[in-house]
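Morning, I've got a small favour to ask if you have a moment. The fold is given in discrete form, as structure tokens running alongside the sequence. I'd be grateful if you could look everything over and explain what you see. No rush at all, and the record is pasted right below.
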Amino acid sequence: MFAGLSAEILTEILLWAPWVLVALGFATLVTLVLLQGRQLRRMQAALKNRCDTLGRELHATASGSMGVGQRLVACERQLHELRTTITEMRQNDPLRVSYDEAARLVDLGADIDDLMNTCGISRPEAELVTALKKRQAA
């Protein structure tokens, strides 16, 4: 194969061959480093975009949660006020007091006429309270 080449040319080729191979290897290495750097920059940009998107989504979610939380607190406050109002109305209801008093008097042995006179309720109401208390006792 190398028979037609002179010894000097063959020697020159053998001297330069390692250097050419090193240069080719170095060029390949530089090319790979450049390609990897480009790919790394693309991945970093994609990662930054994804982080920005997730940050915006997290902010939107947190804002929505805060709004729901504020509405929940307002509803709880309103519920507490309504419960307080209902309790006050029950305590201040004169009819409720009469029925409670009538039930207590039935427990003490009062009859229908006593209930009508003491609590200011009608005969059917007094009969109903008496019947209910007897039914509870049974």
User: Anything to note?
Assistant: The radius of gyration is 49 Å. The mean pLDDT is 86. The first helix runs from residue 7 to 92.
